[in-house]
Every structure is written in structure tokens, then in C-alpha cells.
Amino acid sequence: MLLNAILSTALAISPGLAPSTPDTPASELHDQLIGLVNDQFITAGLIHVHDGEAEWSEAVGVRDLTTRKPADPNGHFRIGSVTKTFVATVLLQLVDEGRLALDDPIDRHLPDVVPDGGRITVRQLLQHTSLLHDYMSEPGYSTNRWRGDARFDDYTPSELIDVAFTADADDAPGELWRYSNTNYIVAGLLIEKLTGRPYGEEVKRRILRPLDLDHTSVPGHRASLPAPHAHGYEPLPTSPPTIVDATKMDPSLDWAAGEMVSTTEDLTTFVTALLKGRLTSQTSLSEMRRTTPADPLFRYGLGLQEFTLPCADGPKPVWGHTGQLIGYLTFALTDGEGKSLVLSLNPYQQDPPAPAIVSIGVTAFCR
Q1: pLDDT at residue 167, as a whole number
Q2: What is the pTM of this model?
Q3: What local confidence, expressed as pLDDT, does residue 175 receive?
Q4: CA–CA distance, 125 with 309 (Å, rounded to integer)
Q5: pLDDT at position 5, please?
Q6: 153 and 125 in contact (C-beta within 8 Å)?
């Protein structure tokens, strides 16, 4: 995963990269974001920061390369795998209601859907320890790559499940951590089986409406983004490189693993409410934050990633999720104590540099 590679590299950087000027965090973040755009790493960057007392938003760059209108801080963007945190939250709410238990085997609720479903638990799905094959690893099924006209194809969850199970898991469930979007396709089906309603409607009913997240949506088969939004681009490996506009796509290929659309302010409200215990019981929140080693430099809970930032006064854990779809990168993080950072980037000709990403995190959480 590109995001994990970026963050793994970034978090290995010495705390000496933390800004040392007397400027305010807001002015430093402004300069850091401007630097990304001016160095042509991204076409637009949106940021929303809460320092525990005050909030600050900004947008830099342009919405698109044709009109070059300024990016809007209230712009919509594809949040990719941050969708997984919404889905996990709904399932933990269902656990709180006694509709299922985290250690229930999948077959108890979705018989004959998952191979070996009697040995794979709900917890293992949400934690990525089920070892189910990732359907997005199959050729033509990744929304992180240009797919031409195929990006407008629509899919059903059952079709994605069928793609996933063309290959079998080769390890016993629970033994290893392996990121797989298939886990959250199954999680979405589980929500639908338990509630009798589309998973997206449950996300709206249980999270979006109670938190007044009016600019967050579950798009289904809608290919366009709500206005305003920055466009996403992808360079093709031609000589010279050809830049294609990848903004429009049918998001059903991502479904419950990554289809949602939001804004920086809405995501700030969501991750803050979740980590402050407003959406689940404290017991369920503790389960979400109970992590397993996923990489030498980050850990994974139930729909939550835990990263440790190299602050000058010592390591600082932050919680949330990252997301990536073609043309869009998202970081939605909080320390659970009042500080939060949501960052949306539109990569252009190359990936954002790791030092720039970690510096933004350090400025937001360590000052």
C-alpha cells in the first residue's frame, strides 16, 4: 500500500525534523502545505486542524489543471479506506446492541459466503487477520490504478467476493496480519444481514445524521463528486508522461472497503467523536484500539490504525485511518485528547515526500 509505505518511511525519520521556528502551528502548516504544492508533488491540499482549543482550515493549490480555480477548504474528496472506520464503527454498535459478538464465526451470520467461514471471526475481519485474499490485488480490480473506461463499470458485493475467492488464503486465520479489502466487503454484507438495510443507510442513520455530517456521503454508483471538489490526476507511463483526469469513477468497486466521500471538517468531527466515546460503548472503543502488529512502524485495531509520531519530547500515538484512491490521499488522525488532523492531498506526478508528511503530523500534534 502506497500510504503505508509513505507513513512507514515518514515515522522512521528523526524527531529532529520537527519544526523549530517560533511560528504558530497554523503558519507552519500553511508553509508546509504550500511547499508540497510549489514543489509540484500535489495539485491541491486541504487541511483541517484542531489543537484542542481552536480549529483551523485551509486549502492550497488548484481545483483542476484546466480552469486553475483555487482549491476550496470545504471541498469534497474520496476518502478511500477511511470508509473502513465508519464500517467498523457500525459493527461495534451492533455488538453493543447484542446483535453479534466479535468472536462469532462469520458462518454464524453469513453461512456459505466465506470459505472457511466457520474459522474466521468478525474480529479477524475488522483487524485484517482473516487472511482472506484481497480482490484488489487481482489485475483490473484496483482503484489505485488507471483503468480507462473500465472505471465506470459497476459491481455488486457478490461479484467482488467471487473475485477474491479465486485464490485461497494460505495461512491459518489469526496467525498473520495482511491488509485485505475483501474483509470490509464481507463486513458490509454482515451489516446488511443483521439490519436488513443497505450498509450505507446504516452508516447514515447511525453516524452521519447524529453527528450532522452533511457533507459526507455513501455514493453507491454515482461517478461524480459533489461540488466543490479538487480533481484527481494520474500520470500514465508514456514518454513524455500523459496526465489523465481520474476524478470520475463508479465507486462500487470499493463499496464498504473505500467508497465514501467527505470533507476535512466532517472527518475531523467523526474521528474526534469516535475516539471520545460518543459512537460506541467504552468497551467497544477499547476493542477498536486493541491493536495487533501490522508493520514495524504502525499497528492495527478494529478499523483503526495507530501511528507513533516522533515528537521532540517523546513518541506520541495518534489514531485514525489513511485512505488512497487514484488521485486522492487522505489522512484522518486524532490523539483522542482534543487534537486532530485531517489532510486531503491530490498527487500529481509523484508521491508526496515522506519528510513533508511527517513534518505536518509533528506540527499538528507535537506543538
Answers
A1: 66
A2: 0.92
A3: 65
A4: 27
A5: 44
A6: no
> Does residue 183 contact residue 173 with C-beta atoms inside 8 Å?
no
pLDDT at 19: 37
Domain range for 295: 2-366
Cβ atoms of 363 and 77 within 8 Å: the answer is: no
Could you list the mean pLDDT of each consecutive 10-residue stretch along the chain, which spans 367 residues? Answer: 45 35 76 85 93 91 95 98 99 99 98 92 96 89 79 93 78 79 98 98 99 98 97 87 91 97 99 98 98 86 96 95 94 96 89 83 93
Cell reading at 296? 514495524
Instruction: CATH number of the domain at 152, please.
Output: 3.40.710.10
Kindly report the three-state secondary structure assignment for every residue of the chain.
Answer: CHHHHHHHHHHCCCHHHCCCCCCCHHHHHHHHHHHHHHCCCEEEEEEEEEECCCEEEEEEEECCCCCCCECCCCCEEECHHHHHHHHHHHHHHHHHCCCCCCCCEHHHCCCCCCCCCCCCEHHHHHHCCCCCCCHHHCCCCCCCCCCHHHHHCCCCHHHHHHHHCCCCCCCCCCCCCCCCCHHHHHHHHHHHHHHCCCHHHHHHHHHHCCCCCCCCECCCCCCCCCCCECCCEEEECCCCCEEEECCCCCHHHCHHHCCCEECHHHHHHHHHHHHCCCCCCHHHHHHHHCCEEEECCEEECCCCEEEEEEECCEEEEEEEEEEEECCEEEEEEECCCCEEEEEEEEECCCCCCHHHHHHHHHHHHHC
Give catalytic residues, as residue numbers. Answer: 81
Q: How many domains does the chain have?
A: 1
pLDDT of residue 242: 86
